[in-house]
Amino acid sequence: VLQQALHHIPNPNAECMLRNVALRLGQQCVEDAMTTLPDMPVIKAIQKISWAVASGSMHLVHGSNEDIHKAFDKPGQTKLPDSEDVQVCKEALEVLTVSL
């Protein structure tokens, strides 16, 4: 019974070691993230995705920026984005925020 009870008693040394490893790993991840920033073509591609999805025309991702702007100029002809499109647009804007 005592042997089984020892497995359930928290070990402060193990918790301290786990915390230190997590802290070092977190610091290394921050350093790695700061050295690999997205370049301008990646940022423009994410921006284009968010614009195309917001217009309700995902096929415009492969079009020009002018085509995407024209989709917003015709409010009666554009369809409203569904919930999945809104989620994609939201994710793209969050990625842009983190990237910039």
Give structural notes.
It is built from 5 helices and no strands. It has helices at residues 2-8, 12-35, 40-54, 65-73, 83-99. It has 100 residues and is mainly α. Helix content is 72%, strand content 0%.
Distance between the termini: 58 Å
Shape: elongated
- Poorly predicted spans: none
- Number of extended strands: 0
Tell me the radius of gyration: 24 Å
Assembly level: single chain
Largest sheet: none
Q: Would you tell me the overall average pLDDT?
A: 79
Structural class determined from secondary elements: mainly alpha
Task: Give the SSE string.
Answer: HHHHH
The total count of helices amounts to 5
Helical proportion?
Answer: over 70%
Strand content: under 5%
Layout: helices, strands, pairs:
Layout: H1 2-8, H2 12-35, H3 40-54, H4 65-73, H5 83-99
List keywords for this structure.
mainly alpha; 5 helices
Produce a short descriptive summary:
With 100 residues, this protein is mainly α. Helix content is 72%, strand content 0%.
